[in-house]
Design brief:
Elements: H1 2-20, H2 25-31, H3 33-39, H4 48-68, E1 79-86, E2 104-111, H5 116-126, H6 132-151, H7 161-167, H8 172-181, E3 185-188, H9 194-210, E4 222-226, E5 230-231, E6 237-240, H10 245-275, E7 280-281, H11 293-309, E8 323-327, E9 334-335, E10 340-344, H12 349-387, E11 392-395, H13 401-412, E12 423-427, E13 431-432, E14 438-441
Parallel strand pairs: 3-4, 4-6, 7-8, 8-10, 11-12, 12-14
Antiparallel strand pairs: 1-2, 5-6, 9-10, 13-14
Helix pairs in contact: 10-11, 12-13
Length: about 450
């Protein structure tokens, strides 16, 4: 019976503790607004010593508040803080702590509470600030505590960037972006089967175990398994699937020097763009042959020498929003159906000028249609996936957006229950991949 009584006491204590912690982090920040306003370092610009003390104390306070919100965090150490509080209208109850001639006073207190509500009240009371708004907030929270404990639904709050700079809290979106930039992305140039991909990953893993320091240069990079090793024009690290570890090791060791070459490529693209009315110089994998970054740099360098020596009379920014790709296998300029100007490196500059001026409006219309097609394609892929309960629906890189739209539109008109749970690939022929993915041509017929 004594054990039963202890169990009841423990459950009651947990329930009371849950209600005490019902004050959210956002509520705590709102309740502490008068305090933040009274101690914010920006108001102590003429008093560097007091400003520094407030900055350091705010950092420690924010760390304490963050720990209170961590689930299961129990090891709290008493935290002694000192703040300089700005002068406000004094009331008879606040005369026990006189203000200095500079208009602020020093306040010291020790935090040892284990919930947000008690901590907020201690801070405000220590600084002789009103707690009425906190009491009313706590009352409204407690009235909803039963409902909240039943559904436990927490909608994320999206704060303005100034909130994080003001409070000192870490911006979760910024932390996520930084973490993603440091991640290494793995890609494949072709739709190889699972066995083939596992073999390539096993080879890369074996290299990482044999020489742990070598692959670290690829941190934050995109690594693509393809037919040759090096770095491509897009800046992806290429690992040739037929190459041995020695070749891969050399590529990883050369990555710092590739970074320098990437900067030179960006510089040439920007300079050519300035000389050609702001048109964007780009490299499109789907429309151009696979080029190493050295080959792409050579193409850019040759073309830049031509347009730099004979400046074309394009008005600055008159071609902004348009895109141009450089090719070495053509002799006449052309306009791709997606709206890209395809310009040969050795193109006659007078011909180039007149061609771009003549096709500008047409190019803008095609680019607009391309954007609309991409949106429609995504919408149709989602609809087909949902209708047939597909595990995955994708297309081969050689299948255009227009072809994918045509294929998906036709699929939506059919009743194909046997596709449920399958991986469907839109290609140019019928086949079944090693992994069981079903390939159908984009222009299939029932």
């Amino acid at each position: 019976m004594f054990c039963h009584w202890l169990t009841i006491r423990r459950l009651c204590f947990k329930k009371l503790q849950l209600q005490a912690r019902a004050l959210s982090g956002a509520d705590a920040i709102n309740a502490l607004r008068p305090f933040y306003f009274a101690v914010h370092p920006d108001f102590f610009g003429q008093h560097p010593r007091e400003r520094e003390i407030n900055e350091n104390s705010l950092k420690r306070l924010n760390g304490y508040l963050e720990n209170l919100q961590k689930p299961g965090f129990r090891s709290f150490k008493p935290t002694r803080l000192t703040f300089y509080v700005r002068e406000r209208e004094q009331s008879p109850s606040s005369v026990q702590e006189p203000f200095g001639a500079a208009g602020f006073r020093a306040v010291s207190f020790t935090l040892h509470t284990r919930d947000l509500l008690s901590t907020v009240l201690d801070i405000l009371n220590s600084c002789s600030l009103s707690t009425d708004h906190v009491q009313s907030l706590n009352g409204s929270v407690n009235t909803q505590s039963k409902q909240e404990t039943k559904r436990m639904f927490h909608r994320p709050i999206k704060w303005d960037k100034t909130y994080y700079s003001f409070t000192g809290f870490k911006d979760p979106e910024e932390e996520l972006e930084q973490a993603q930039r440091m991640e290494t992305t793995l890609r494949w140039q072709r739709s190889w089967g699972i066995a083939h991909r596992c073999s390539q990953l096993h080879s890369l893993s074996r290299l990482a175990h044999q020489s742990p320091e070598v692959p670290k240069n690829a941190k934050g990079q995109t690594v693509i398994f393809t037919d040759r090793s090096g770095m491509n024009a897009t800046g992806y690290v290429m690992l040739g699937t037929m190459d041995v570890h020695h070749h891969w090791t050399k590529i990883f060791e050369r990555l710092p020097s590739y970074s320098t070459l990437q900067k030179k490529v960006l510089f040439l693209e920007e300079r050519i763009s300035e000389l050609l009315g702001g048109i964007q110089i780009t490299y499109v994998e789907e429309l151009q042959p696979m080029l190493t970054i050295e080959e792409y740099y050579s193409i850019l360098d040759n073309f830049y020498d031509q347009v730099h020596n004979k400046r074309l009379p394009f008005h600055p920014n008159s071609l902004r929003g348009l895109q141009m790709i450089l090719g070495s296998d053509r002799y006449a300029p052309s306009l791709h159906e997606l709206g890209h100007f395809i310009i040969p490196v050795m193109c006659d500059l007078v011909t180039l000028q007149w061609f771009i001026m003549d096709k500008t409006q047409q190019a803008r219309e095609k680019l607009k249609r391309k954007e609309e097609s991409i949106l429609l394609e995504k919408k149709l892929i989602k609809a087909v996936t949902k209708k047939f309960c597909l595990q995955q629906l994708y297309k081969e890189p050689s299948v255009s957006s227009a072809q994918m739209i045509h294929s998906c539109s036709n699929l939506l008109e059919e009743s194909l229950p046997y596709l449920q749970g399958m991986h469907l690939c839109i290609s140019h022929f019928f086949s079944v991949l090693q992994d069981g993915d079903l390939c159908i041509p984009w222009n299939w017929k029932n």
